[in-house]
């Protein structure tokens, strides 16, 4: 049987039907709210693929990030079993500061004609206009925003959290409807090394495989 090559027109039509998501972050470490957000984005946006991108050189972070190989490994443990996800190393491999606009432009080239979505939390939306080339990001992708608690630090209460008010945001975005999980990477890092008692296990905050990895590699522990 002779196979007839797909025409360029059909290839373009197939690409245009794709819905591609980008979910980036330090993932230092990835926690249960990250996992829930990925699941929510895949379902509510009807994504064909969601790229999970641990950041490389984070221009906006004051602290030094955990080495990239650890954050990448934890992302594989946190998201690797989710269908239609790809753990994407490109920002880690990129020289110099890592900008979302560059990654979105690369994804647009890889998926010509596809609809792109940038998945982020409400806290990031509030500072979105401080991003480098933020208007270019808006041109390339639809912002898909998950609600987040107003207080997200290490001492923030996990229960009875107040949702971030986005009513004054003058940017177009699509809201993702997900449970309000007041978990942050800051809280996870602060939690490591605390005495474990009933209800105080690290696995309350991060997937079990990530908790085991943190323990195995002695991450986020104060030097003795």
Description:
- The protein has nine helices and six strands, in the order αβαβαβααβααββαα.
- The protein is α/β, with parallel strands linked by helices.
- It has helices at residues 8-16, 32-44, 68-79, 90-93, 100-110, 122-126, 134-140, 185-191, 208-216; strands spanning 19-25, 49-54, 85-87, 115-121, 142-146, 174-176.
Write a brief structural summary:
The chain has 224 residues and is of the alpha/beta class.
Q: Look at the structure and give the mean pLDDT.
A: 87
Strand order of the largest sheet: 3-2-1-4-5-6
Main sheet specs = 6 strands, parallel
Fraction of helical residues = 25-40%
Count of DSSP-assigned helices: 9
Taking all Cα atoms into account, the compactness measure Rg is 19 Å
What is the CA-CA span between the terminal residues? 69 Å
* Series of H and E elements: HEHEHEHHEHHEEHH
Instruction: Please state the structural category.
Output: alpha/beta
**What is the β-strand count?**
6
Question: What overall form do the CA principal axes indicate?
Answer: globular
Work out the strand percent.
5-15%
Catalogue the unreliable spans: none
Q: What topology emerges from the helices and strands here?
A:
Elements (H helix, E strand, L loop, with lengths): L7 H9 L2 E7 L6 H13 L4 E6 L13 H12 L5 E3 L2 H4 L6 H11 L4 E7 H5 L7 H7 L1 E5 L27 E3 L8 H7 L16 H9 L8
